[in-house]
Amino acid sequence: MTNRVTAKIKRSMKAVAVVGLAGIAAFFAARPFVHLVDDTDNLLEGPPPVFMDAEAELSARARPLTTDSELEDRASRPVETQVRVGSGDTLGDVLARAGVEGIEATQAIDALRGVFNPRALKAGQKVKVTFEKSPHGFGHGGFQMVSLNADPIRVVGAQRDDKGGFGPIETMRQVSKQVAHNTGTIKSSLFESAQSAGVPIQIIMAMIKALSYDVDFQRDIQSGDEFTVVYEGFYDTKGKLVRHGEMLFASVNLSGTPIAMYRFDNGQGTVEYFNDKGESVKKALLKTPVDGAKISSGFGMRNHPILGYSKMHKGIDFAVPTGTPIQAAGDGTIEIAGFNGSYGNYVRLRHGSGFGTAYAHMSRIAAGIGPGKRVSQGQIIGFVGSTGRSTGAHLHYEVLKGSDQINPLSVKMPTSIKLAGRDLDRFKAVKRDTDTLMAKIPPSTRLAANALGKSAALSN
Ligand SMILES: [Zn+2]
């Protein structure tokens, strides 16, 4: 993003220097009309930096003047401009900035309300404003249409009608549901390696979340371990992902030990990931009580190795940056929450079956976390820091049995659900279909869901 922005600004400055104001005026006449449905530009892009205002966008696109005939050709087409929504902007502000007059803007916004709530406009979003071609060969004519992406698939807007007013428009982008298959080798972290393999962020997060019950992302994942993920996505006609779907399968091979999971919906409200034996991956305690995406083999503590459990060191450490949220490893009750000597800011939870967990050196304890309160698994209880006797940001994590610390790595948590009877039969069928699907789709490719025959039923 930063590089692109820098490049854009450089281009922008160059363009302004070369063509000056005349070039910017020519820009208005130069933009061809782009049919809405084909425009997938920046759909999945995050909010832009604050300084990327409409002016910068416009001048960045300015091009040197060329021939008269080209100018005439450009002048014969409608003029379209895109404006970024700034923080606190209303749609009225955006239209005013694009040069739409007040009364017309109000009419268009009223019409738009039929298909979209203008208050749902988000900072960073792009709004497309189209004007008629210029009667003079430069600048632009009357305001014709405003449109924006209501969501990745739905384009909404308001367009001038025959009676001189405005009517709502709504277009569904043409997308197809496809199943993608990615594999890769972990270098410094699962997150980075999956990202460079092209796996969408939301799918990576789902994968890390589902693996966090069984995998200690600090100690279990080694450089060279392999991962596989199969997921659904909605792709436009150009093959660009517009919306991610469900993760159907994920596996990691930890130094030769495979951990694999299949998505299964039992039709009675339980949608979870199960191993090949039909056991839910969910356990009473998470093995990694911080966001596994933040853990990489390249990030270590200064003067403090990443320690395993020992007589001297009664817990295990997760080296993650200051401020990383710490999650309750399991459902439970808060026993202690406060400053605790060499532990620094410290929280201890009590879970069922005599187990406890403790979290030390927090930069701060989360709001609302106090003794006697209930927490649920995955709830944020505090943030990683280096308070107490600590030489660098990390989470010191302990598992207790009664009041004694035990080695967290030795704790084997039972599964929360074990499928049986008809559920197990149905799961086995889903597993078989998923395996067939994976065999049909070569790694790093995807196939249309409706081209997968019987297997397509999986994703419905
Ligand atoms: Zn420690």
TrEMBL record:
A GO cellular component entry from the record: cell envelope
Csd3-like second N-terminal domain span: 182-299
GO molecular function: metal ion binding; metalloendopeptidase activity
Signal peptide positions (record): 1-29
Domain M23ase beta-sheet core: 311-408
Keywords of the record: Hydrolase, Metal-binding, Metalloprotease, Protease, Signal, Zinc
Recorded superkingdom: Bacteria
Cofactors, names only: Zn(2+)
GO BP: any one term: proteolysis
Compartment(s) where it occurs, according to its Swiss-Prot or TrEMBL record: Cell envelope
Primary location: other
Pfam families with a match to the protein in the record: Csd3_N2, Peptidase_M23
Region described as Disordered: 62-82
Coiled-coil spans in chain: none
Signal among keywords: yes
UniProt protein name: Uncharacterized protein
Organism: Magnetospirillum gryphiswaldense (strain DSM 6361 / JCM 21280 / NBRC 15271 / MSR-1)
